[in-house]
Each structure stands twice: as C-alpha cells, then as structure tokens.
UniProtKB/TrEMBL annotation:
Protein name (database record): Thiol-disulfide oxidoreductase ResA
Comp. bias regions, Basic and acidic residues: 33-56
Pfam families named in the record: AhpC-TSA
CDD domains attached to this UniProt entry: TlpA_like_family (cd02966)
Region (Disordered): 33-57
Top-level lineage group: Bacteria
InterPro entries: AhpC/TSA, Thioredoxin-like_sf, Thioredoxin_CS, Thioredoxin_domain, Thioredoxin_ResA/DsbE_sf
Family annotation (Gene3D superfamilies): Glutaredoxin
TM annotation in the entry: 6-24
Amino acid sequence: MNKKGLIIIILTVVLIGGLYYFTMGRKTEESLPKDNITKEKNEEDREEKKEKKKITEATVGEEAPDFTLRNLDGKEVSLKDYRGKIVLINFWATWCEYCDKEMPDLQKLDKENDDLVVLAVDVMEDEEKVKNYIKKGAYDFEVVLDEEGDVAKNYLISAFPTSYFVDKDGTLIGSVPGMMEYPQMNQILKSIRENK
C-alpha cells in the first residue's frame, strides 16, 4: 500500500470517529439536563418523604412535640399526659458518665416538687440494662424508652445528657445541653414559676 492510500484510510477513520464523537457527544450533552432534572426530582421526592415521616422538631416558644413511648412497666406514656405540670424531659443513656452524676439531682428535684415531672428518656438501649440501672440507683421518676431514637432526633439531641423544660401548657421553654446540678435545676424551675 502506498502513502497516499494510507493517508486516505487514516483520514477516513478520523472523519468517521469525529462524526461519531460529534453525534454521540451531542446526544450525551442533550441528555445531561434531563438526567440532572431526574436526579433533582428524585432528591426532591426523597426530601418530601422525609418531611412526611418526620414529626415536628422541637422549637422553643412553641408547643413541645408530643411523643408516646413505653415505660419500664411496658405502659405507654405520652408527654401530653403531663399537661398541668412542668416537665423536665431528660435525654440520657446508662453508659453516660455525666448522666450518672446528674441522676441523684433529678431524683431529688422530682421528689421535692409536686408541680414538676421528671421524664427521663433513655435513648436506644436494651430495656433490661435500663431497668437494672434504675433499680440499682433506686430512682422512681418516670423512665421511658426511645428504642429507635426518633424522639431524640425530633428534639435535636446531639449529646447526653440534654434536658428540655416544658411549661404547664405544653410550651417548650428551653433546653440545657450537658449535665445540670441541683441548684441550676432549682433556679430554672423557680424562673419558670415566676414567668407564668
């Protein structure tokens, strides 16, 4: 084969390759927005499903998101069961060192105040482990099990312990991230009473 024939073959291959690239490249570019639109639509659908599934998140100054969880006796307990009382919702876990230090003060606060309920929400732990912990500490305030962690998510819990205060009307007053000591708990309770 001579040089001229070889050049013609190379040019033909390049020309065919260029045409193929140009037509396929155009199709790919044209399909990109559709793919992006489909992708965005799928993401929107997923977000919409999350919104439907999600219970209202905790917002200070608004009604506290209600929840119903089982207590250590297997009975269902709802936050709204305590309307007419101030509620200290305490999110905790048995392995949490600061929760352990806080528990005796929660017990004392619960015992001394008839208008207050301590509602201890254990997050995602084995029921027997929680029962043993509560029995060993001789705590008798209400303990409920957030087995799936959904209530903790709705209350935006990122660390243990975290406490929320709810007034007698069911309005979320505020939260305290981290461990509290008895004087701080008492001061917050006094402030809630004075502002009502």
